[in-house]
Amino acid sequence: MEVQELSIAGAWVFTPRQHTDDRGTFLEWFRSETVTDVIGHPLGLAQANHSVSRRGTLRGVHYADIPPSQAKYVTCVQGQVLDCVVDIRLGSPSYGTHQAVLLDDTDRRGLYLAEGLGHAFMALTETAAISYLCSTSYNPSREHGIDPLDPDLALPWPRDVTPLLSEKDAQAPSLKEAEASGLLPSYADCLAFYETLRIQAGRGQ
User: Which residues of the chain have pLDDT under 50?
Assistant: First the structure.
């Protein structure tokens, strides 16, 4: 499995080796020991989600309070999505920036996002389905969102695709509004939490 660290600390792309013959294709889309070696601790599995979306569906930018927030390992099992990692951690060197990754059913990449990072994606094909592993269960009282069309974020959604948002996502605050409300995680708190996870795994400093 090939691993690529993204420009936002705490996010990696995993590209699996695919084995294809006249019967079809086999691959390991997630391998625990590989992810553990990369991030420094195991990805706890509390929930597995599956999302099916029509073309243009835009979900996010979602994040959760830390601790414990929610780490995610995302892959596209049908079609194609543009997935964006957004650094919303106050004090981070890359605060307010994003990294876009194309996930599809051809290369079958996996995207890991650490706790405290924002996550959004848009379906680019008529139907797109993603599956993702989550380190914690969904807790609506701790979940938040940021407007995925916020011009200050300038996320690179295709201009030829009309975005389809839920009412909740459409009404989400901008990054500046979320910052002013005190809802964003701090980079220091995130780093401390990551170190706690490494210590619990016997890999801390």
Answer: none
What are the CA-CA distances from residue 55 to residues 82, 84, 126, 172, 182 (Å)? Answer: 11, 16, 5, 21, 34
DSSP state of 110: E
Is the preceding omega at residue 68 within 30 degrees of 0, hence cis?
A: yes
Q: What is the pLDDT of residue 21?
A: 95
* Helix (H) / strand (E) containing 181: helix 175-181
Please give the Cα distance from 49 to 134 (Å, whole number). Answer: 8
Q: Are 178 and 88 in contact (CB under 8 A)?
A: yes
- Rounded Cα distance between 93 and 8, Å, is 9
Residue among 161, 181, 189, 166 at smallest CA distance from 60: 166
pLDDT at 170: 96
Q: For the chain, give every domain's residue range.
A: 2-198
pLDDT at 205: 64
Q: Which two tokens stand for residue 129?
A: 């389905």
Residues with active-site annotation: 62, 132
SS3 195: helix
CATH classification code of 2-198:
2.60.120.10
What are the distances in angstroms from CA 203 to CA 14, 41, 53, 112, 187? 21, 7, 38, 19, 20
**DSSP bridge pairs for 3:** 14
Residue 147: CB atoms within 10 A of its CB come to 22
